[in-house]
Predict the structure of Bacterial bifunctional deaminase-reductase C-terminal domain-containing protein.
Amino acid sequence: MGTVVMYSSVSVDGFIADAGDQPGPLFEWLVSGDVPLDADGGVRVSQTSYDYVRPYWDRIGVTICGRRVFDLTDGWDGKPPGGIAHVVVVTHRPPPDGWDPAAPFHFVDGVEAAVARAQELAGDRLVEVAAGDVGGQVLAAGLVDEVRMDVAPVVFGSGKRYFGSIDAQHLLEDPDVVIRGDRVLHLRYRVRR
């Protein structure tokens, strides 16, 4: 089974978006570098960030997100982002009207079912869980192996929390990766079992 990784860019005070669901300056590090991170060159980072992020992106087999993210992105027009093979959407609602059933998106009810489906699809590749409410639920269910954060130098004060509405303590190991990029600090923690 693939490792389950909770991931997002995050403000120093722990938010993945402002109160209006906008990332604001959280993604400055993704457009301010000299090295193309994606095939079309729209995402450009420092060499340090590239050396850390690109190998991670290449290992992702499936991304899990909530219906809110799916709706905000218009389902990425039926094409998973970043070359990922599949997206598992946690939702209590059916796919949108007119949704192409051949698109590599899987709509499931509940985080346990989402992780099981994602691991089946990913094989030995990584399962990435978008931070936020769904990510917090997956962590609370004890299904996250690793937490990755790209910490941007901004304080939002309020907004959408990295760990969603999680209401219990969860211990992480000491960070095993701490990398300073341009306009970002990359952190990786294993979840303590």
